[in-house]
TrEMBL record:
The keyword Membrane applies. Residues 1-23 form the signal peptide. The chain crosses the membrane at residues 33-62. It comes from the Bacteria. It comes from Paracoccus alcaliphilus. Coiled coil: none annotated. This is Putative phage tail protein. It holds the Pfam family Phage-tail_3.
Length: 737
């Protein structure tokens, strides 16, 4: 690692470009102000002390999750059309959302320009419209009249690639003009000077195409654009500052400090040696469970700059991607990577200049027993995913049996293995609680915020022995005479441990189920099946009135784009075999019950008639095909009907018998059914008459055409308005003469 003292002698004076008045060493002014003469030993020492005056590290042990992950919200916001697009840097390899910054419709063609990156980009690129990858031929960097890339896959082209509905051009930041075809076909809306020089943009010519497939091809207007690729070119101080594509986390932090539009840093106010050291750490390889290795700290995402927010806050997600921290000292900014570091000094004593303060336990608000990290997952179209929980062994028991979870937003980490490792580092850091405050002897003058040292105070402070990191140190000087000064070093030390960074993939890495994102937009799917019900379950009752009905029910469609359902009833006439379609209605998604089932009734049905229902899904991408239920014969509610009161049979001649029966005293009874048989059983009896008869009404009928000396047996039963039947009466018989 080289000279560890120099590597961790880092500083942060603020995220701002130093003004000219601040450029001179502060120590010169202080030394002169207290009366020391230039050229004396005391002058030189005081000047050096004050130049390195206050050294304070920014401790990013944990960032608490607040609401929706920032990267997910940023990506959604950047897809919205605007004439004032947000200034953004796209880093690493990721999807860059396109912001529509100008568009014009000519006939059935949309001409549109999307801003991807507010600076030049490396490429190559893969284009996705509405999260569907575009396959292409042609050259997207050719801005001539016949240039551009043409989509060759469905639904962006005609079958067989005969003609394309989408042509696009990409400017990587080195373009000097707008594509010639865009200029010539937009009647002056786009001009040759609309080049977006120095920016990465995409122009597209999108044809609406046939109406029957247009909703599937262009479900949104304007289409949502994402472009996958290798993005910003960053300089590497290790190779002489040459700019090239990189996913190295430390180099990306350095690039954002140097080139941000808020307050860019000049190299004079940066400790470039610390960024080189952190870049080496980020390039180190880490073994993974399945075999092989991955880089230690990569950084991929979209950084949006905004006015009114501290630059430090805006760059925090980049630092979190490497678990790194910034430190400040005397006007120069550096970085401390998340890696084990050797101790540069052993502290054995403190002065009596201030009381020694030993803190054993930290605040419970900053103490955690487990951690998870949320990160944008490439296999889920960069939507938020969560790592498995990492539990610190023994931590919950040590804290009294109560689990406390740390949640991290890692907006620039796209690999779950890196995210899981950073979650472990963060929660293990939170468990280091010892703090020591005091005043060091002058021989510790070279310690700065971020320095690692050993503490060995001897008895009775044996429990405080171990490795610590300097949180802050503020050297001050008092004058003895023109040749000598007194140096004081107030310091705060925080417990540190190399075990925080230990990683065993066999035990620490946890498996994550891979996503199966499919950007294809097919036809909206109808409901899977329809269940029809009639009878008692479908009847409606209001007071003494009962209304028969038919009920249809179905589960929701499997298409996530569905917003509701439309249905129609089909009635079959059993008399003339005609079919009639009754209008139904529409149901929104919130019409489903707790189980997600949709139910609609059909009332005033004809008992004995046949009914069906057809249903289709309504979605943001159009309608599904109709699905039709099996037919059902309408029935009324089931109920008990009393048996008719009596039945008698009397022979009138050699070929005639009179039958008399009396309806039951049941107000629900509506008809009498009279049956006859040659044997004494109702099971095979033939229905002879159906007679309308209310309660207690007597009915007489005659069976004629019989042979002489013939014995016949008769039965009766009642039926209500819904077709429910009573039991049979006992038989009555007679024999013709």
């Amino acid at each position: 690692m080289g000279n560890c003292k120099l590597m961790i002698t880092t500083a942060l004076v603020g995220f701002s470009m130093a003004e000219p008045a601040e450029a001179a060493p502060v120590g010169v002014w202080v030394a002169s102000a207290i009366g020391l003469s230039a050229g004396t030993a005391a002058f030189a020492v005081v000047a050096g002390v004050v130049t390195m005056a206050i050294s304070v590290g920014i401790n990013l042990i944990a960032q608490k999750l607040r609401g929706k992950p920032k990267q997910e919200a940023v990506r959604a916001e950047l897809t919205r059309p605007t004439s004032l697009p947000a200034y953004r840097f796209v880093y690493g390899k990721t999807w860059a959302p396109g912001t529509p910054v100008g568009f014009k419709v000519v006939g059935r063609v949309l001409y549109i320009c999307y801003l991807l990156n507010s600076r030049p980009s490396a490429g190559p690129f893969t284009v996705l419209f509405d999260k569907r990858q575009v396959e292409k031929d042609g050259n997207e960097f050719d801005f001539g009249v016949n240039g551009g890339a043409r989509a060759t896959n469905s639904p962006f082209s005609w079958p067989g690639g005969f003609a394309s509905h989408a042509t696009y051009w990409i400017g990587r930041g080195d373009q000097t003009t707008c594509p010639a075809r865009i200029v010539s076909e937009t009647d002056g809306y786009f001009t040759a000077s609309d080049a977006w020089r120095g920016r990465t943009v995409l122009w597209a010519r999108l044809e609406f195409g046939p109406d029957e497939s247009a909703r599937e091809r262009w479900p949104a207007s304007p289409p949502e654009l994402n472009v996958d690729g290798n993005w910003s070119l960053v300089e590497d101080p290790r190779s002489g500052g040459a700019a090239s594509f990189s996913r190295n986390q430390a180099l990306i932090v350095l690039d954002a400090l140097r080139n941000n539009p808020v307050r860019p840093y000049d190299d004079r106010y940066l400790r470039l040696d610390t960024f080189s050291w952190a870049a080496d750490v980020a390039d180190q390889t880490v073994p993974v469970k399945v075999g092989g290795t991955i880089p230690c700290y990569r950084c991929d995402g979209v950084l949006v700059f905004s006015d009114g927010a501290e630059l430090e806050d805006q760059l925090e997600p980049l630092l979190a991607a490497g678990g790194s921290r910034l430190t400040r000292i005397g006007g120069r900014l550096g970085i401390i990577p998340a890696t084990p570091r050797a101790s540069v000094r052993t502290i054995t004593d403190f002065t009596d200049g201030q009381p020694l303060d030993l803190v054993r336990w930290g605040s419970s608000d900053d103490l955690y027993t487990e951690a998870v990290a949320r990160y944008p997952a490439p296999d889920r179209a960069y939507e938020s995913a969560e790592t498995p929980v990492y539990v610190v062994p023994g931590a919950q028991a040590a804290d009294g049996g109560v689990a406390k979870r740390l949640q991290l937003d890692l907006d620039f980490v796209t690999d779950y293995r890196q995210a899981g490792r950073l979650a472990k580092i963060a929660v293990e850091r939170s468990r280091l609680q010892r703090r020591i405050s005091g005043e060091l002897f002058p021989d510790c003058f070279d310690l700065v915020a971020g320095s690692v040292c050993d503490v060995d105070l001897g008895a009775p402070y044996g429990s405080w022995q171990g490795k610590y990191e300097v949180e802050s140190i503020a050297p001050t000087a008092g004058i003895n005479d023109d040749e000598s000064i007194t140096i004081r070093l107030p310091v705060t030390l925080a417990e540190s441990s190399d075990a925080v960074f230990a990683w065993n993939p066999a035990t620490d890495e946890q498996d994550v189920m891979p996503g199966a994102f499919d950007g294809g937009i097919g036809r909206v799917q109808p409901p899977p099946a329809i269940v029809m019900t009639t009878g008692t379950a479908a009847a409606q009752q209001s007071g003494d009135t009962v209304i028969p009905g038919v009920i249809a029910a179905w589960n929701g469609s499997t298409s996530a784009s569905v917003t509701g359902y439309e249905y129609e009833w089909i009635e079959h006439s059993l008399l003339n075999f005609t079919l009639a379609i009754r209008p139904g209605g529409k149901l929104p998604l919130d019409a489903a019950d707790e189980l997600g089932v949709f139910t609609v009734p059909l009332q005033f049905v004809v008992i004995g008639a046949e009914y069906q229902i057809r249903v289709r899904s309504i979605g943001i991408y159009g309608e599904s095909d109709w699905i039709t239920s099996d037919p059902i014969i309408a029935a009324g509610p089931s109920s008990a009907v009393a048996v008719p009161a009596a039945i008698t049979a009397t022979a009138q001649s050699a070929n005639r018998i009179n039958i008399t029966t009396t309806q039951a005293s049941d107000n629900n009874a509506r008809h009498l059914l009279i049956y006859g048989n040659d044997v004494n059983t109702s099971l095979t009896a033939e229905l002879l008459w159906t007679v309308a008869a209310g309660a207690s009404v007597s009915v007489t009928r005659s069976e004629t055409g019989l042979s002489s000396a013939t014995t016949r047996y008769y039965f009766a039963r009642a039926r209500d308005q819904f077709g429910n039947l009573s039991g049979f009466t006992d038989s009555a018989s007679a024999t013709t003469a």
